[in-house]
Amino acid sequence: MNKKIKVKNSGLIKLQSFNDFPDGNLVIGESNRNVPFVIKRFYFINNLFNKKSHRGHHAHKKLEQIIFCINGSFVLKLDDGKNKQRILMDNPHYGVRLGPKLWHTMEKFSADCVILVLADDYYQESDYLRNYDEFIKYLNKK
Ligand code: T46
């Protein structure tokens, strides 16, 4: 995993962990501590058996999220309208902040990949920018 994030409205979140090898790892996130908001919603994505799957392809207007790959791996592509970055998500101890106005795409999933996302708000379709041109226009609005 590349630990230097150069796009805006992002950053790395390190979770606390206890390694009890060979009896497992315990990995912890807490609202307003290592997770920089109060978690109102979480969702996970699994069963990524189609190697050609692409997910994401959108940005959010206001939503704050942290994305983790808690098993397997995938490639997260970020684009703040100026800078682009690809991050290999293969370390369950690190999450990536998906702040507002950050176009994101997920691809190249391993079959055992499990993605966990923490969000600071409930689902609202009106918060999504699902068209790239609309996203660029939204960035230049204010
Ligand atoms: C994101 C990336 C990382 C709901 O009804 N409630 C929900 O909480 C979510 C997350 C989705 N949905 C519905 C909306 C769509 O009809 O589930 C369907 C699939 O969602 P979407 O195509 O947006 O899934 P992804 O994987 O492209 O994006 C998801 C999140 O939606 C998005 O916020 O940032 O994961």
From TrEMBL:
CDD domains: cupin_QdtA-like
InterPro entries in the cross-refs: QdtA_cupin_dom, RmlC-like_jellyroll, RmlC_Cupin_sf
Pfam family for this entry, one: FdtA
Gene3D superfamilies linked to this entry: Jelly Rolls
Stretches assigned to the Sugar 3,4-ketoisomerase QdtA cupin domain: 9-139
Protein name: Fatty-acid oxidation protein subunit alpha
Lineage, highest ranks first: Bacteria, Candidatus Falkowiibacteriota
